[in-house]
Automatic annotation (TrEMBL):
The lineage of its organism: Eukaryota, Fungi, Dikarya, Basidiomycota, Agaricomycotina. Keywords: Stress response. It comes from Russula earlei. This is Heat shock protein 9/12-domain-containing protein.
Length: 86
């Protein structure tokens, strides 16, 4: 479960797993806005104030690799849903 004021994990997963080619322009805009707001909230919220679940979720969705690619993006690329920029 995500912390109050943060994007839910199911919303993040749904946005990540739906191929970009199937999204409308408005979906792209909303996904980008939500992602940007959640990323900012992740950086602003001290680790000590995050629930364990939120800490795990932030690690999964943040840039975890040396190249800054998130684990979600790597998984998406692995199953052919990524944009292939990696």
């Amino acid at each position: 479960m995500s912390d109050k004021g943060r994007q839910s994990f199911t919303d993040k997963a749904a946005a990540t797993l739906k191929p970009d080619s199937e999204k409308s322009t408005s979906e792209h805009i909303v996904d980008k806005a939500k992602g940007t707001a959640d990323s900012a909230a992740s950086k602003l919220q001290p680790e000590g104030q995050k629930s364990t679940g939120q800490q795990v979720g932030d690690k999964i969705s943040s840039g975890s690799g040396k190249d800054g690619t998130s684990l979600l993006d790597k998984a998406k690329d692995a199953v052919g849903l990524g944009d292939g920029k990696d």
